[in-house]
Write a structure and sequence with these properties.
UPF0478; mainly alpha; 92% helix; 131 residues; 2 helices
Length: 131
């Protein structure tokens, strides 16, 4: 009976040793595969970070373009609005010799200067005709 016990114990110990050797061999064989998977994962993560950075840059550029378009649109609209007042200012100037400018913005000042230059030219032509 002891012999059977020792043989059983030897078989169990042999099985454990064989299991350990087989596990070590499997780990050694899996190591290059795990390294390749890790390297691939790192490259993918770098690509994802690059894409995210480029997306952020594009978003910032898009916002700058939208702001620029809005600024130019507003500026153009102000110029158009100021230009619409020119005929009225010319009529007032022609009739009364005075200009009533509703607000003093830079565009209004430019329009006012242009009107006064036009008035000066008209006056110079009148004087030239009289002489």
């Amino acid at each position: 009976m002891m012999v059977v016990l020792y043989i059983s114990l030897a078989v169990v110990v042999g099985s454990v040793i064989y299991l350990a050797v087989a596990a070590m061999k499997a780990v050694k064989e899996m190591k290059p595969t795990v390294q390749r998977i890790t390297a691939t994962t790192e490259r993918m993560q770098m690509s994802v970070e690059d894409i995210k950075r480029e997306t952020d840059e594009l978003t910032i550029t898009q916002q700058k373009i939208q702001q620029d378009i809005e600024y130019k649109k507003d500026s153009f609209q102000r110029i158009i609005d100021e230009g619409k007042t020119i005929p009225q200012l010319l009529q007032q100037t022609w009739r009364s010799g005075e200009v009533h400018v509703p607000e003093q913005s830079e565009q209004t000042s430019n329009v006012e200067r242009a009107v006064f230059q036009l008035i000066d030219k008209i006056e110079n032509k009148r004087m030239a005709r009289k002489n």
